[in-house]
Design brief:
7 helices, binds 8-iodo-guanine, alpha/beta, five-stranded mixed β-barrel, globular, 31% helix
Length: 276
């Protein structure tokens, strides 16, 4: 069976195989935390120092080659030391999205592999549009909760998973203690690859959505279902459709992300050891 066939026929076995490869290649029996770096967040990992290990994600079982600009498709292992603690961090530079049309399995494969490789905390970062006008471009926002508008779940079968504390309140409080300027919001998951119409943004605002993007939600659900604690951080890179009257442009979105990434990298580095 090819690695891609295994991904679709037995996704958890595929994740376990990838985890074993990560353990063997890094020589780290158990990582503590995984970070998934979305658009614009890739440079935030510079704050984590020099990686102890790096490979191309596609060398590992079940990982697809990257397709989106700003997503480099690397897997790295870092040692983060602070307060006398030594934390092992697994970092995924880039992710697979639902809009790529390959189904949900490749979207959640990295976080499943991370949990199987020992990670107890999964940090999901993304770039998003702001529905709520209190958020400005370049602002990082903690995800407090989500609304899924894709009708897609990474889970199937009679597994009725509780999502009342999906985005860990414990972790959000630690981040807000470290940086009192951090605000929180409800993230709406939109399949894409189209951005929303202004009418759809109006609908999302009416529903209670603050932020909108095309990632994070399936990964949060899949990792939580395997027992991990989740932190989601969205970097606002544009006002959502119809909010300013301007059209949305992917290049602008990438540029706005880079500007704020350094600050977030330093924040994450300081906070990660406190989570354990
Ligand atoms: I960055 O305005 C980014 N990603 N759906 N809408 C959706 N995804 C996004 C947006 C946006 N901005």
């Amino acid at each position: 069976m090819t690695s891609s066939e295994l991904l679709y026929s037995d996704p958890l076995a595929c994740a376990a195989a990838a985890a074993q490869e990560i353990i063997t290649r890094t020589g780290v029996a158990s990582h503590d935390v995984a970070l998934v770096m979305g658009s614009g967040w890739v440079s935030a990992v510079d704050a984590l120092g020099t990686p102890a290990y790096e490979c191309n994600a596609e060398e590992l079982t079940g990982f697809l080659p990257p397709t989106v600009e700003g997503h480099s498709g690397k897997v790295r292992s870092y040692v983060i030391e602070a307060d006398g603690k030594k934390v092992r961090a697994l970092v995924f530079l880039g992710r697979t999205h639902l809009y790529e049309g390959k189904g949900v399995e490749p979207v959640v494969h990295s976080v499943r592999a991370a949990v199987k490789a020992g990670c107890k905390v999964i940090i999901l970062t993304n770039a998003c549009g702001a529905i709520n006008t209190k958020f400005s471009v370049g602002q990082p926002v903690l995800i407090r909760d989500h609304i899924s508008l894709t009708a897609v779940s990474p889970l199937s079968g009679a597994t009725f998973v509780d999502l009342t504390d999906l985005y860990s309140k414990r972790i959000r409080e630690i981040l807000k203690r470290e940086d009192a300027t951090l605000d929180e919001g409800v993230y709406v998951h939109w399949r894409g690859p189209t951005y929303e119409t202004p009418a759809e943004i109006h609908m999302m605002r009416t529903m209670g959505g603050d932020l909108v993007g095309m990632s994070t939600v399936p990964e949060a659900i899949a990792a939580h279902a395997l027992g991990a604690e989740i932190l989601g951080i969205s970097l606002v890179t544009n006002a959502a459709a119809g909010v300013t009257g301007k059209k949305l442009n992917h290049e602008e979105v990438i540029a706005a992300g880079k500007a704020a990434a350094d600050r977030m990298g330093a924040l994450l580095k300081g906070v990660i050891p406190q989570l354990f």
